[in-house]
């Protein structure tokens, strides 16, 4: 892990994961199965961290780079509080896609998700993000409520998307940043237009 200059709540620091951190990422997945149960119907498989860490966007989608982040307490061996995976400039310059955002179960309901997302949003904006984009599994009510409450709006749905062993419908959601608009985004990213 190496520090990344992402403003965190005072008790945490943000670290960018490197390949040698994959076993620790797998331990985080194993210790916090709720996300995987909600979207795939089963806990994380034994090699999921390896697969997720090395997974790239589909070949037809251009992007700049992918970040895998861990939010960890300053105290050395304390459990990770959350992880996030972001891809910059996905499909168009200024689009930051949140591929994963998982807060440790022990910290649910304490405001961590909101605080960490605000930190991610500020950092992404400083990196040139004009929009935050993500996909939410339809029926994952907790996540659907959370993202809507954070200002994300549904653009369209995609159906038959493999998420673990399940085929799910996905809400493609967007949050414009820094005075940008949804219309500007859709002018750049035809793939996310409701009529496509």
UniProtKB/TrEMBL annotation:
Pfam families: Acetyltransf_1 (PF00583)
Classification via PROSITE patterns: GNAT (PS51186)
InterPro entries named among the record's database cross-references: Acyl_CoA_acyltransferase, GNAT_dom
Gene3D superfamilies: 3.40.630.30
Domain N-acetyltransferase: 12-178
Xref: SUPFAM superfamilies: Acyl-CoA N-acyltransferases (Nat)
Database matches in CDD domains: NAT_SF
Record-given protein name: GNAT family N-acetyltransferase
Organism: Roseateles oligotrophus
